[in-house]
Design goal:
Length: 290
């Protein structure tokens, strides 16, 4: 029964060194320490846990040689068996009657008892387990840090072109109207063609044309006008300015300055750079009637 109690005490001391004891375990430990007072002030478990824990801590500065030697000597004196020790330390001399004479035991006894040595072994084993856990946690953390990959950058979704936007408008808007573009002066040598699409519900649209001559933006610009049935014909709605700097098909988004209710005609004029508020319409180059 005593051996069982001492094993329980060792288990509790071991757990106390590497973890925490609950209230019941603390109460049980106090009772067992009264039964085994030699273990009450024993700190071998804590020393073992501390030593092993310190062994896995990365230190950038080495311990001075003389300090390390002193600590090792003290450790050997505290824990180890010194072969040069010539007298019993743990036990007092015991007198025995041997052939009628008084004799003193000359046997050398180790500093610790069997159960104390066993306790040290259990403590060391448990603390080694703790050290392994600490090491693996540290190593795993370092691996995670070292193995961190840069965040994957999402490839930005390319913005649809004006051609694609025009197709989307034709496919999605149910009220889209379409008007063919033609040159305003039949005698003009420029063969202008194309179309204008417009959605009243979305208030957006696009001009598509071919043959409109390129302009010098420092000298002139093109400007779109929208003639609305709800608007005085003298003051068509400004649909935005644009430049043409290449031959071939050109698509320009319409930028109406006010809400367009019921367009009946679109006109393109050539104006001074930046456009005008009211056009004299002398520079009309193309029209599109709805």
């Amino acid at each position: 029964m005593k051996n069982l109690n001492e094993e329980t005490l060792l288990d509790l001391l071991c757990k106390k060194a590497v973890a925490f004891l609950d209230a019941n375990e603390l109460e049980q430990l106090k009772k067992l320490e009264k039964e085994f007072p030699e273990w009450k002030d024993d700190d071998s478990f804590e020393l073992a846990a501390t030593a092993i824990n310190l062994s896995v801590i990365d230190s950038g500065e080495k311990m001075p040689f003389h300090l390390r030697s002193k600590i090792m000597a003290n450790a050997e004196d505290y824990f180890g068996w010194n072969e040069g020790l010539q007298e019993t330390i743990s036990f007092e001399p015991r007198n025995e009657v041997n052939n009628g004479s008084l004799a003193t035991s000359a046997s050398y006894a180790p500093k610790t008892s069997f159960w104390q040595s066993l306790g040290w072994g259990v403590a060391a084993f448990a603390c080694i387990a703790l050290a392994v856990n600490l090491y693996l946690t540290r190593f795993q953390g370092q691996t995670d840090v070292a193995g961190n990959k840069p965040p994957v950058l999402q490839t930005p979704t390319p913005q649809p072109t004006d051609v694609q936007k025009r197709e989307q408008l034709l496919a999605s808007a149910k009220d889209t109207l379409k008007a063919e573009v033609a040159k305003a002066d039949p005698k003009s040598p420029n063969e202008i063609s194309g179309d204008i699409v417009w959605s009243g519900s979305e208030q957006k649209g696009y001009i598509r044309f071919r043959g409109l001559p390129a302009n010098d933006s420092s000298k002139s610009t093109y400007q779109l006008w929208i003639f609305d049935e709800a608007q005085d014909e003298k003051y068509p709605i400004d649909g935005g300015v644009f430049d043409v700097n290449k031959d071939g098909e050109v698509i320009i988004p319409i930028d109406a300055k006010i809400n367009v209710k019921n367009p009946k005609m679109f006109a393109i004029t050539k104006e001074k750079p930046g456009g005008v508020v009211v056009s004299d319409r002398t520079g009309i180059v193309a029209i599109a009637k709805v």
